């Protein structure tokens, strides 16, 4: 528990409230009654939430809960069956081009071209985003994310953990205002994962960026996130700060809450 508390102290707004909504600026993400059917499977089932700018929100849920599908709809990569998504005020996918340059995403399950070197891959993505002073930006990311030793190696010849760091560099290349992350520390050893989390925290702070991340790592979510949205079978099961969610389930860790939700145990006071 002492170790857990040590982790919690690193959280930026762990004890605080999520940033207040600014009435003059649209939310970073505004999802209303979103539904996605894949043939007979309802992957996302009428979910609604708004995410304030400058916040870090964790999307939790077991395998198949609908997290990746939700993120893909926010990116405009998957079309909703019904409902709406707005990102930074733009309707997705209709107005995607207005905001694509201000968002980016990372997923360990989406591979970059394997034969190209890390530097070539980052150069291609940087050009897609019209990044100015691209060479300097890549050098900066290589220093920040410790990529220097393998910048000129083919992507296909990297370890899983090295690929995860390169994918993060790709996600940060355009200094996005909105960063969508699917398992940002998958395959990373605990030390590297901790350091990547610190990098994400300082990136958010420096740019007032908004981060939405899907993760199965509960300590990561406790440490990083101001808010947690728990999904189960396509629906939102709970949505609050980590502290309040743990209090509601009368649990000390999100891991225990996750097991309660997965195994269908009711939260305290719930009917
Ligand atoms: N392209 C697809 N075609 C058909 N069904 C799909 C497709 N993508 C996802 N699904 C189904 O939709 C549901 C939600 O999947 P999704 O990948 O969004 O879940 P997830 O919460 O990200 O899961 P995980 O934690 O395993 O990554 C699952 O039942 C999955 O089998």
TrEMBL record:
Residues 1-25 are annotated as: Disordered. Residues 29-258 form the ABC transporter domain. InterPro entries: AAA+_ATPase, ABC_transporter-like_ATP-bd, ABC_transporter-like_CS, ABC_transporter_ATP-binding, P-loop_NTPase. Keywords: ATP-binding, Nodulation, Nucleotide-binding, Transport. The keyword ATP-binding applies. It holds the Pfam family ABC_tran. CDD domains: ABC_DR_subfamily_A. GO terms for molecular function: ATP binding. PANTHER family: ABC TRANSPORTER ATP-BINDING PROTEIN (PTHR42711), ABC TRANSPORTER ATP-BINDING PROTEIN NATA (PTHR42711:SF5). Involved in beta-(1-->2)glucan export. Transmembrane domains (TMD) form a pore in the inner membrane and the ATP-binding domain (NBD) is responsible for energy generation. Belongs to the ABC transporter superfamily. This is ABC transporter ATP-binding protein. It comes from Bradyrhizobium jicamae.
